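Entry 14. Structure prediction run on the chain below.
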Amino acid sequence: MDFADSPERAAFRGKIRRWLETNLPPDICVDDAADQRVAPDRETLEKQQIPRLIELAKQLPTRQEPAWNETHIRQQLAQFAIEAKALQVTRLRGLTRRLRGEPPGPEGSILKLFGSELGVRISDFASTLLGPYAMVDAPTEAVPDASRWFHRVLGARQYTIAGGTSEIQRNIIGERVLGLPKG
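Output returned:
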């Protein structure tokens, strides 16, 4: 029996998807275009994490003044916002393909690879910005949501592994999208 495109496979995927949607934390979504792989929710990046990091940069001092006053901090936050918008547009591109009835394109692998690595970069930046507060698993006066950042910093690398490691995604993109030989 060929399980690749069978009703059994569709039923199995449906069960897995329902379980994931029921049991995963709200900052994680299941992405159809990425073949039901788990990836960080891009809307969370753009609507919650980046604006909150901007607020924290304006509040937390480095060298006796707010971190926001340093050009490289503002540039990095702007870069994150640009990359989050690029993810959103790529996601819409994949959705448009599906609405047209076209087969899934490379968007799923690109979203998985770029989104998970962006999440790691944001977590690394948050760790640097927050300093010791990034390792506090409880609200503090300076950072009331320190616990949230603690979990994001510790868990960021899991997204580069879950649903296909970044290396696997690069191979998929290289072979299937760019037409490079298997190696």
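The chain has six helices and four strands.
Filed with the rest of this week's runs.
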